[in-house]
Amino acid sequence: MNAATISNLEFAEAQLAKYEALNKQQPELRSAGFFKESFQSIRDEAKRDEALTKAELSSELIDFRFLGPRAEHGSMPLGQFLEVMDPINRGLNKAAYRLRYGKEAHRVGNDIKDTLNLKMSGIGYGSTRILVTGDNRTDLAGNQLLSQTLTQTFGLLNATSENFYDYVDAIGSAAARNFGEALHNTKKNGLSAVFTWKRDQNPLSWQGRTAEIDRVLELIKTTNDPDQYEQDLKGVVATIADTGVIHIRQGAAKVKIRYPMKLIKDAELLTVNKNVVLHVNTSRYYDAVVRRHVYQHTLLSVK
Questions:
Q1: Of 77, 82, 226, 302, which residue is 20 to 30 A from 284 by alpha carbon distance?
Q2: Is 246 helix (H, G, I), strand (E, B) or coil?
């Protein structure tokens, strides 16, 4: 935690208490009321700074920075703000649902929204910086839904054409289209963007200059709802990762299978180098860039 912030907060609270007491004793003393209000504002600002510092240390702070003539001096038109931030909010919630349950969301319920607990927590200056905090506490199964969601979201934004569909399948095509809508509206309003997940260590960022926005939009535009079917995959367990991925060997080939958070206990029961039969949902995407089908697998159950 920032020592200067604590010092400012303690100083402001001490001065506020002093002038509150003086204001009660001598209500006719105008200076006491003036300094009371001033130190109340300083105290509130110091509290916000402290909360944001704690959020960054807990990997709970996302900084959405927008640059352009209509996003100067820490403000932007309300309609423009909603056009960009509303689809980002919807995309994050749909991505979280997909990661927890392994399927696309027709409607995202309060269980996801309350777990993420996304809130606008401040505005920065210079350009327009929208500071959003969430809840990164570990649930009873040992998962951090916010971290998983942001990891895959920043993975999508920074994806190459080679691994793009892996990230699309992780968060779902509906969430990917929401992020595409946000980027389209960013560009439409003459803005560029820098998104940063302010983790205590190894922050993730995406540099959204005009050319980069165009690149990601082109990838997202190729995203359609995949053909889906269920099947059994047989093989030998090669790896099991806590990032939600299982690899099985089928002869000389390795097959990647993603498992949702709700099936983490089933995944943990698997044993490396043992034969296994996994019932999966297979999504078949058509990659228009390389002109071939891409197959992604999501675990449904272990047989």
A1: 302
A2: strand
